[in-house]
Design a protein that fits this description.
About 20% of the residues lie in helices and about 40% in strands. It has about 140 residues and is of the alpha+beta class. The strands form two sheets. A five-stranded antiparallel beta sheet has the order 2-4-5-6-3. It has a two-stranded antiparallel sheet with strand order 1-7. It is elongated and about 45 Å long.
Length: about 140
């Protein structure tokens, strides 16, 4: 049985502070959007007690920029959890304006115990909430 994570759409608000000297969104803003989208995904699927007990820190981002983003653009970041391995989670995020792909991001994250601030594996019951059997 193959499993996959359902995609999670996150509406991105392009703020005037995101705009750089060239009149489009600064590259650093994309990282902020990915972080916001991934954490929104976590809060949507994880049980409340897991959200309270765990924090997430980014380990790595690989971003491919496709097209510039501008102030009045309506932007959606679609997050897909690819796998969870130990205390790490691997995500793919596609940032779009309508059908246009603006950026593609591969990222890895480490789950941290909120009390000890040490890496923590998620319980299988929590991980299973993020995946469903393929139809």
């Amino acid at each position: 049985m193959t499993e996959h994570s359902p995609p999670h759409d996150f509406c991105v608000a392009v703020d005037p502070s995101d705009i750089d000297f060239m009149g489009h969104v600064n590259n650093a803003s994309y990282l902020k959007w990915v972080q916001d989208a991934v954490l929104s995904h976590w809060r949507k699927f994880a049980p409340e007690e897991a959200v309270t007990a765990h924090l997430w820190v980014a380990l790595k981002h690989e971003i491919t920029y496709r097209k510039p983003t501008f102030l009045d653009d309506e932007v959606i970041a679609t997050v897909l959890l690819e796998k969870v391995q130990g205390a790490r989670a691997f995500y793919a995020t596609v940032i779009r304006r309508g059908e246009e792909v603006l950026a593609e991001v591969k990222s890895s994250w480490c789950c941290i115990d909120a009390a000890t601030l040490r890496p923590a594996r998620l319980a299988t019951s929590v991980v299973e909430r993020f995946f469903r059997p393929a139809a």
